[in-house]
Amino acid sequence: MLKKIRIEQLQAGMYVHTLCGPWLAHDFWRTAFLVDTPEVLAKLRASPVQELWIDTRKGLNTQDALPDSVLTAFTADTAPSSLSQEMVRASAICDEAGDTVMRMFSEARMGHALDLSTASTLVQAVYSSVERHPDALISMARLKTSDNYTYLHSVAVCGLMVALARKMNLNAEQTMQAGMAGLLHDMGKAHSDPRILNKPGALTDEEFKHMQRHPVKGFLMLQATVQDEEVLDACLHHHERMDSKGYPHGLAASDIRLLTRMTAICDVYDAITSDRPYKKGWAPGVALQRMAQWCNTHLDAQIFEVFVKAIGLYPVGSLVRLQSGLLGVVCAPAQNSMSTPQVAAFYHIGLQRMLRPAKLLDLEKLPNERIVAGEDPSKWPFTNLEQLWQKAAATATA
Question: Which residue spans traverse the membrane (predicted)?
């Protein structure tokens, strides 16, 4: 949304859509850009510009991040809710959390210390959402674009870490610790070159080495405010591998801590299921199949088994083939079994026709119907799977 503000309201992290007044009155040759450095902010405030339009879809809004926000409003409530109910709240949390992480990155670029209270409030909001329903926020956080990937990736990994910690039966303090590691693990990218970070093609060797520096940059930046050694270690070593071929230090598996192993799995899963400037994200089911092949080389096999249980053998959004010859998309997890989720069946393979409307099937209640295989959406000409599972999830009972 576009909003007109006074120049004194301008903050780092806002996206300038248009500068008001004659273009000859200032020396900004671009009128649409992100205010991402203290120099740009100071130059704008010192210019003759009195008013401007900001785009709140691409940058921060004028309101404060946390007071009277949905993050604060939803932290205390942990009573169980249905998937459809929690998806509404999770969507609002993701929207505001994305803005909050964007602000954290902007502050980091300007050399400011992390506001740990803001980070803690965000983690608490994510924790409470996962307590209310473990699948809603994880599903909504997948709906990111290549433009907001860096910020919502941190939110998504935070949610995945909380869900994984719960499934591993860690206590509340350890679960919050896991969420904080997920939220902060990529803060070092605040100091990565955005042209490399958002490059649509393959990286050169030098560009790849540049990106490999982000864990160390994040660790050095966070040391000033984060006292938790486990969280700091996860930020520094989440790209280490079980076969000692990771970075930045090539650690042996025995030297990679539990929280760091968890972060590696959650980070990889969200990264490969997300659309990036250089590739289309894999479907959840396809991602789990690929990750299973990386166990014991890249990832901890035992923790990965628990991770699959946490998000489901067929996570929400997975395309599946049913025994009856129907294709469907998973829209809600099963209550008692990973193999019997709720599925929105929308296509008859034999008849080669769409089902209108889609049929909502609860496989736990249909003994003669089952999933026979996960399908790769890239092999089918369907472009609306995200909308389909969201619509079906709005009426799901899980």
Answer: none
